């Protein structure tokens, strides 16, 4: 085994652990630096390894998780303020803006389309 292949394996293990953490906690918080440090992987290498393994940046993956979770919460009848707090948006307006940018309609319009 060469030094490079061991490093790659190490980085991919860190990325896998990080993805599990994101999936389990719905992307709340920024744990990338903690996981990369725990596995001894440079942050830039860690981000590149994540994108290589999953085909998406960490930021976009986290956004997709939050948006999917927000859709689930809207379907469950939760209100926008509660969802924004649950998903750690600074304000309900920030959540609404992100939702509209991602899905092309406001959370209110989405919720109304479910009825």
Can you tell me the overall shape? elongated
Q: What's the structural domain tally?
A: 2
Q: Work out the number of β strands.
A: 0
Mean pLDDT over the residues:
85
Euclidean distance between termini CA atoms? 58 Å
**Main sheet characteristics:** none
Domain HTH araC/xylS-type: 16-113
Pfam family, one: HTH_18
Organism: Niastella populi
GO molecular function, one term: sequence-specific DNA binding
List the helices and strands and how they pair.
Blueprint: H1 3-25, H2 32-38, H3 43-54, H4 58-75, H5 80-86, H6 92-103, H7 107-113
Tell me briefly what this model is:
With 115 residues, this protein is mainly alpha-helical. It contains 7 helices and no strands. This is HTH araC/xylS-type domain-containing protein.
Textual characterization of the structure:
75% of the residues lie in helices and 0% in strands. The protein is mainly α. Helix 1 runs antiparallel to helix 2, helix 1 crosses helix 3 and helix 5 crosses helix 6 (92-103). InterPro entries: Homeodomain-like_sf, HTH_AraC. One of its GO terms (molecular function) is sequence-specific DNA binding.
Keywords for this entry:
about 120 residues; mainly alpha; Arc Repressor Mutant, subunit A; 2 domains; about 75% helix; disordered N terminus
